[in-house]
Amino acid sequence: MKINIIFFGTGQFGAKSLLSLCNNNQFNVKAIVTQPKKKKGRDRKIITNDIENIADNFNIEILRSEKIDDKLIEKVSTFNPHIGILISSSHFLSKKLIDIFPYNVINVHPSLLPQYRGSSPMQSALSNGEKITGITIMNISNKLDAGPIIAQYIIKIDDGDNFVTLANKLSIKTSLFLNKVIHKYINKEITSEKQQEVRATYTNKIFKSNGKIKWKQNSHMINNQIRSLSGWPNSFTFFNNKQLIIHAAVPIQLDNQNIKKKIGIVCSGNNREYTNNLNEVKKIYATVRCYKSELIIEELQLENKKRMSIQSFINGNNNFINSTLNYKK
User: Fold this and answer.
1) Contact criterion met (CB below 8 Å) for 251 and 244
2) Residue-level pLDDT at 248
3) 87-106 tens-digit pLDDT
4) How do residues 282-308 score in pLDDT, each as one tens digit?
5) Which of 34, 55, 68, 79 has the most C-beta neighbours closer than 10 Å?
6) β-strand partners of 155
């Protein structure tokens, strides 16, 4: 018997899992419940995402709705679904909807619950300098990310990981892990366990303003911010009254020659070298003075310009060294 699935998802994170489900001949993805199309950018163009492309390629019906109402619930019931899969969906699923599914609705969350419940688990793990994270597959509940845990998968966070690379790594692992878990769950080979509420932590919604760099922090905290907000909203400062995004950096100890320099000053490399996240020895071209530390700048992007290496940036902006960042008139 093929397992009939209704997929709930809008975000990019769930696309690889959806594709994996579609390619498995033991599953039959009957419909995808997602948000209505939205216009983005200055041109207000409608952007098609990977989930919609997959639906088109496999001829899967898309059900678009901002909220799940009785009409949509009735439509879902016509597909005779066995189980619902929810990944990166902003929809609230009512008990009336969940009761349609004989095997419930299971939710995929990119953290090791009960840690990092909420909307920004990957960003929060990176921001806090965590060395491991993972995937939790759980039964859905009426409380935020608090359902009984069906299975978990632990993943190492590398020093060079940022939000973009970590999300990709987790989405690939989820696509492989989920298929196995669904079979075991439906065959009652695994049982769910309640979460330990005393260990629960929560994440916050991310706003563009969260990206502003505070150079009064130490360089490790700033670097974790840069990693966690990679992609959007990115971490930024100001140079010559223009926004300057720092895409990649490495924290180091404070050099004796820069002890007396003010916070936020761009310092020269002073003929120093460092080992980057790929274990390569590189020349230091510029650092920013932080609290009792420095931040090596590797890649950056000035407002309305392309992303580039620090060496290329200095070649085109000879007043960058000794300038003060975060200063905007």
Assistant:
1) no
2) 98
3) 999 888 999 999 999 999 99
4) 999 999 999 999 999 999 999 999 999
5) 34
6) 133
Q: Which tokens is 130 given?
A: 């965590």
Q: Which two tokens stand for residue 173?
A: 């692992």
Tens digit of each residue's pLDDT (9 = 90 or more) over 219-246: 999 999 999 999 999 999 999 999 999 9
Burial class of residue 163 in the structure, from the number of CB atoms within 10 Å of its CB (0-12 exposed, 13-18 middle, 19+ buried): buried
Q: What angle do CA 300, 306, 309 make, to 5 degrees?
A: 40
Please, what is the end-to-end C-alpha distance for the chain in angstroms?
67
pLDDT at 320: 97
Contact 222, 213 (CB under 8 A): yes
Report the CATH number of the 208-316 domain. Answer: 3.10.25.10
Lowest mean pLDDT among 20-29, 36-45, 300-309: 36-45
Give yes or no for a contact between 221 and 249, defined as CB atoms under 8 angstroms apart.
no
- Give me the amino acid identity at 39: K
- Evaluate if residue 197 carries a pLDDT over 60: yes
Superfamily per CATH, domain 3-199: Formyl transferase, N-terminal domain (3.40.50.170)
**Alpha carbon distance 206, 184 (integer Å):** 35
Return the domain boundaries, the chain: 3-199, 208-316
Residue-wise DSSP of 105-139: EEEEESS-TTTTBSS-HHHHHHHTT-SEEEEEEEE
Q: What is the distance, to the nearest Å, from the Cα of residue 192 to the centroid of all Cα atoms in its chain?
A: 26
Angle at 173 between CA 49 and CA 170, to 5 degrees: 65
